[in-house]
Sequence to fold (220 residues):
Amino acid sequence: MQAKRSCCSCKTVKPITDFGNRCKKRGLISSTCRACNSANAKAWREKNKEEIKRKKAANYEGNKEAIKANIAAYREANKERIAAMRRARYEVKYAHRLGNKNGKVPCKTKICPACGIDKLRKEYFKKLTSISYLCKVCTNLHAVDRNRKVRNRTPPWCDKAEIAKIYRNRPEGYHVDHIVPVLGIIDGRPVSGLHVPWNLQYLSATDNLSKQNRITESDL
Ligand SMILES: [Zn+2]
Ligand SMILES: [Zn+2]
Fold:
């Protein structure tokens, strides 16, 4: 049978392993349980907060050199252990820098879906949180293609000076956006808006990139 003892603080009977040592040499066991001990100590520290702070500061002032030497000696003696701890902490905090969740190192290259070539990340445009879908070369080709399509969607009767004015007056940090995309999708159906003044609006760069030519009827 396991030895038990009553705690004189919380008055409950607990197994002897729940009590700390009062004097190890003489085999004396604490009269209060570990839980009460730590709770009491915490309460005492909270009550004497200012006093403890003052004493600590006074002690440091009086023994500055010795304390500094102690710390330096400890660091010197435990160099490897401290380095290992730091490394472990770094690996937890910056896991994303060392590799992804599966421990794999992130790819340095990406296959461009347009030209099919495995290219380095620097050969793609940087986007807000990732890199462009197509490589720089293909993105530019796509832009040329897109400009041609936009030109095709500009009716000959519309006021081109008016459109130029909208582009000229574009505020800093904003894109000129087609409300109905020139080539886009509304509710799953392909649409083709006109390149006319009343189909143009200013949109912040972030909003425009998140729109991605996919809108719903309610957005109009
Ligand atoms: Zn207790
Ligand atoms: Zn490409």
Observations:
- The chain has a mean pLDDT of 85.
- The pocket of zinc ion (ligand 1) is lined by residues 7, 9-10, 32-33, 35-36 (CB under 6 Å).
